[in-house]
Design brief:
The strands form two sheets. A seven-stranded mixed β-sheet has the order 7-9-6-10-8-11-12, with helices on both faces. The chain is built from ten helices and twelve strands. It folds into two domains: 144 residues, PurM-like, N-terminal domain (60s Ribosomal Protein L30, Chain: A, 2-Layer Sandwich), CATH 3.30.1330; 167 residues, PurM-like C-terminal domain (Phosphoribosyl-aminoimidazole Synthetase, Chain A, domain 2). With 336 residues, the protein is an alpha+beta fold. Bound molecules: adenosine-5'-diphosphate and magnesium ion. The site of magnesium ion (MG) has 6 residues, from helix 2 and strand 7.
Length: 336
């Protein structure tokens, strides 16, 4: 069978169950943004690993080595944020083509270091090897959290408000600009693509708030990522597309290219916004405090329902996710 027939998640599912019985009590394995390993009576460790492959996740000529170093770590830290944990270390492995210069790699490390320093996360190991052709980067990050406090994708409750922490679609439009338009006015969008901000402080705060239930980060686009929460929690959702936050930069870009910003916002990946669900009675207060603390908005975009299917609406009318509609720009790859 071709891998494409079952896809990335079907493939992972095909072997994940086999290992369940080897997981220690209190641990949590494949299926969330991080794995959870109990380390003491009152602390859990969380771990995540992510790989970036040249020409799959990045095009070397289209991003600076500093940005690539920064982003490689940022996307990993975003998975620590998704659990509500505090990051403690990173491990960096790469397979480097022989044609690479030390100057390029020094710059990569500079970008990686900038983000490490910002959140005080030491690089504590890794591996270096040669590659016959492409540059491959693999990063593992660890974090800690109070026992049993990590936010899982399976924790959404019926009636919860679904919220995101950022405008969606900027990163995808940034990628579109890098690949197609090279438009000087898209600097902001390109920067959002190259330098995503992991929501570490915000997520640790959100994790402390009673009423916050499920959490994950949006790496593949909300159109596909919401299904992870719904499938794990065995719930459905109504997503109000008119409430999906669209930045003025994205609106402007789409006006110019005669595109619907929702296409970028729903199908475009790599925003690394948090996606969370919170009890509807607590949500208003949480959003108010969030805004006071972080000077940014927690955007409600819908509600968790009992049915196991997301319903997308526009002004309270159900709309169809047509094939080729939301996926206009982004052919689904096997892995992202
Ligand atoms: P994310 O987008 O949050 O990084 P992924 O979609 O990459 O998560 O992975 C989904 C889940 O599958 C995660 O729990 C991840 O650890 C697990 N996973 C992915 N690939 C493998 C693999 N080759 N072996 C074991 N687990 C894997
Ligand atoms: Mg994730």
């Amino acid at each position: 069978m071709q891998l494409e027939e079952i896809g990335e998640f079907g493939f992972i599912k095909s072997f994940a169950k086999k290992f369940d019985k080897l997981i220690p009590p209190g641990g949590h394995g494949i299926g969330d943004d991080c794995a959870i390993i109990p380390i003491s009576e009152n602390r859990d460790m969380v771990i995540s690993s992510d790989m970036l492959v040249e020409d799959v996740h990045f095009i070397k000529e289209k991003s600076s080595p500093e940005d690539l170093g920064y982003k490689s770590l940022a996307v990993n830290l975003s998975d620590i944020a998704a659990m509500g944990a505090k990051p403690t270390s990173s491990f960096l492995s790469f397979a480097i083509p022989r044609t690479f210069t030390t100057e390029y790699l020094d710059k990569f490390i500079e970008g990686y270091y900038n983000l490490s320093e910002k959140f005080n996360i030491p690089l504590m190991g890794g591996d270096t090897t040669s590659s016959p052709d492409k540059f491959v980067i693999n990063i593992t990050v660890t974090g800690v959290i109070d026992k049993g406090k990590a936010k899982l994708r399976s924790m959404a409750q019926e009636g919860d408000i679904i919220a995101v922490t950022d405008f969606l679609g900027d990163s995808a439009a940034g990628l579109h600009a890098i690949l197609h338009s090279n438009d000087k006015n898209s600097k902001h969008l390109i920067n959002r693509h190259n330098r995503p901000e992991p929501y570490l402080m915000q997520s640790q705060w959100l994790c402390e708030q009673p009423g916050v239930n499920a959490m994950m980060d949006i790496s593949d686009g909300i159109g596909s990522d919401i299904n992870h929460i719904l499938n794990s929690s065995n719930k459905g959702a109504v997503i109000k597309t008119e409430q999906i936050p669209i930045s003025s930069h994205l609106k402007e870009y789409c006006k110019q290219y005669k595109t619907d910003p929702l296409e970028f916002a729903i199908s475009g990946g790599e925003d690394y916004s948090l996606l969370l669900t919170a009890n509807e009675n607590s949500f208003k207060q949480i959003a108010k405090e969030y805004n006071r603390n972080f000077k940014t908005t927690l955007f409600p975009i819908g509600k968790i329902t009992s049915k196991n299917e997301p319903v997308w609406t526009l002004n309270n009318k159900a709309i169809k996710k047509e094939s080729g509609g939301f996926n206009h720009f982004f052919d689904s790859k096997i892995c992202r």
